[in-house]
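Q: Predict the assembly, please.
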Amino acid sequence: MTTPSTTSLAVARAARERRSAGFARTTADRLGVVGSIAAGILLVIVLAAVFAPIVAPYDPDYPDLLASLSGPSPAHLLGTDALGRDILSRLIWGARITLAGPGLVILIATVIGVLLALFAAWRRGRADTVITWLLDVLFAVPGIVFGLIAVAIWGPSLVTVVCGLAIAYIPYVARVVRGAALRERNMPYVSAAWLQGQSGTGITFTQILPNVQPIVIAQAVSSLGFAVIELAALSFLGLGVQPPTADLGLMVKSGFDSVLRGHPTEAIAAGALIVVIVWCVTVIGDRLTSNARSMR
Amino acid sequence: MSLRAYLLRRAGGLLLVLLVTSFIVFGLLYLAPGSPLAFILGPRGGTPEQIAAVTAQYHLNDPFFVRYAAWLGDILRGDLGYSIVYRQDVSSLISGRIGTTLALVSMAAVIIAVVGVAAGTFAALRGGWSDQLTSTTAAIGLSTPSFVVGVALISIFAVGLGWFPTFGSGTGGLDTIVHLTLPALALSVASAAYLARITRASVLEESGREHVQTATVRGLAPGYIVRHHVLRNSLIPIVTVLGLTIATLIAGAVVVENVFALDGLGSLLVRAILQRDFAVVQAVILVLVVAFVVVNAIVDFLYTFIDPRIALGSRQ
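A: Predicted assembly structure:
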């Protein structure tokens, strides 16, 4: 005869096995063909950006004024910009900031958003009402406006726009995670942990958080694409990353001035790299989102 | 819930959000480092007259909440402050530029509606390669920032082919439309791609429904079925997304106006931020946020009318 407790133990074990089988599945399985291609491209870009000092053929800031605005050649594969700096090297170094800035935005937004969401879902009642209302207010302001506001107060810089945008992305993460956490909270395993005497904080972090984790990651990756676009746009406007630092948004801006003089290489290369990065991130995010939904 | 009660509740919620955002915009000044007076006047220093003017405008001699009430009262009376850089009333600065932004956003909205719905319907009904091609194009369009589209459009159609002017917003009428074509295109690419996606999904879902099968079996003409059975029913999500998209265009215009050097609210805002013209920054941000919130509320409200199945006030 099986007692209820052994049944639930068996169920728990089966669930754990299913989950580890899920982890054992290869990345390609989880991302699909297009997703794997996107992940591959993104990996190459990230590696190049991380190892920029080794990979980049030239110092990105070295101006060779005699060779300014030269077209693609064996010496400079993508040519040089208006100040004679190697465009390829600036792309590689620029990808660093273009990836790290939005990455930081999403990291901050995710940590704060998840904490708010879990707290709201666990406490419910008045705490939930207040947090939901706060998120609604944040939602009522378009994201890029937070960046603009931050710059208006603290002046143009990468740190300022990262902080501004991080606040803008909190509701995007928190709303989704709160919904998922509320669903998990009503599951039997949560009551079981409660009956075993685990504290609310303990249950939230050891039981609920691992179960909403796929949704958190999917939402973070999906938001990352938008953050890349908005941060690059703010840099393009001259409000984010400041010259002479290499940044893709800034390169589109400086390349734009060369376009008007008939040299489109820099703007095209930087713009195309932004599109590729955002496309890869969005494809992976879409895939992770549909995976997280089907796991429910 | 009755319509009256619903409208009252919506209006109340809207007012509350507007009050909170106005308070935040007002509070910005006090988040800034240094004293408000020094922040507004900035490195310009300021003559005793300027100091007196700023003190009067921001009611700096009053307690904090009195200041806020006075500031809000000024705004409700249409007094948005005085620009230190332009030496003009902010309200006249804004009213001179709001037309360009409105025209830009309206043109983009029309492009998004036409292209998005057409492409999405086309992809869903044709299927196969047409669908693949449209979906791929939409995915790329969705990944492309408006300023990259803008720079590409300028280099191809303005610098390369010379079909359109590079900068400025024209002298009115047809000239304005010609000047705003490329900016409106740049502003609409990502949203059109998104709308195409939504339309495709919605049309696909609708054409699998039983009432469409019934219509097909009854031998109705395919064109008639598409127009009267499929499209009409798939309009609900399409219209909602379109409305919400128009709200985001208000913020997107900030970037596009700067690419094309249009004299709209967005370029005014960015210049004001860089020149630390705080009265202008506050006023333009307030206008943008209010427009955004109000458009969203209108869409929310219309949504319940488009789809009678959704009860007033229910959160869907």
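The longest strand of chain B covers residues 82-83. Chain B has two domains: 3-90, 99-276+288-306.
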